[in-house]
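Below is how a single chain appears once it has passed through the pipeline. First comes the sequence as given, then the structure the pipeline wrote out for it. We keep one example in the README because the format questions we get most often are answered faster by looking than by reading.
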Amino acid sequence: MPGPSSTSGLDDATIINGLQKGDEQIFEYVVARYSGSLLRVAMAFVPSRAVAEEVVQETWLGVFEGIGRFEGGPIPPVA
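Resulting structure:
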């Protein structure tokens, strides 16, 4: 199991695989790495930071619950 300092060099496939296996260190790494970006995006769409933080929490919950169904491949463009 990779430690916190060893997660920074992981490729996407390794991260997805770790998330699907329930690797808590990889999940913590992903949350730490992307929460700031998610918060900035959420704040552009909701009226307050508190609501944006709830949106980010719900997003991570959805990732955690849905990662097992992720099959890989490119993300289709948004129409």
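The mean pLDDT is 86.

See the next section for the split statistics.
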